[in-house]
Specification:
sporulation, about 0% strand, Spore coat protein F, single chain, 2 domains, Spore_coat_CotF, Spore_coat_CotF-like, mainly alpha, Ferritin-like
Length: about 160
């Protein structure tokens, strides 16, 4: 296999998904830990935060190897985070319903789960459209998509 100087498109997109998911998760963990009073649970949050920060630090050096990446930063409010978190929730819901349906033997329950799966798919589409229209998820512009990942990961890491 030859040595490439850039990542392949498919691995770049997988990296994007991981970094976007973990960045939103890290922001959520850092916001939520403030409310956690139980010392043992708080320690679990700290371990999780440190682990995700390390994951992001290990993945970020690969971003310059992504194909056609441009360097330009811009600041954004929390709307990208909240909408990204909602998109992740919708995506996870779709996956969870799909898995549950494959494990369901009762037709009535299956019908309810299919209905709920379709609702989750619709929610995902609505949130995606919102994010795309507002420039939070530039899915057809890989350079912008990756810049957002880097910005969000760095924001999540530096957040106190």
């Amino acid at each position: 296999m030859d040595e490439r100087r850039t990542l392949a498109w498919h691995e770049t997109l997988e990296m994007h998904e991981l970094v976007a998911f973990q960045s939103n998760g890290l922001i959520k963990l850092k916001k939520m830990i403030r409310e956690v009073k139980d010392p043992q649970l708080r320690q679990l949050y700290n371990v999780s935060i440190q682990g995700v920060e390390q994951n992001l630090r290990e993945l970020l050096p690969f971003f310059p190897q992504a194909p056609h990446r441009e360097d330009e930063e811009e600041e954004r409010a929390d709307n990208p985070f909240y909408s990204g978190d909602l998109l992740g929730f919708a995506k996870t819901s779709v996956r969870s319903y799909a898995i549950a349906i494959t494990e369901t033997a009762t037709p009535q329950l299956r019908n309810v789960l299919v209905k709920q799966l379709n609702a989750a798919i619709q929610l995902h589409a609505q949130v995606y459209r919102y994010m795309y229209q507002h420039g939070y998820y530039p899915s057809y512009n890989l350079s912008e998509l990756l810049k957002n990942d880097v910005r969000n990961a760095n924001r999540a890491i530096s957040m106190k």
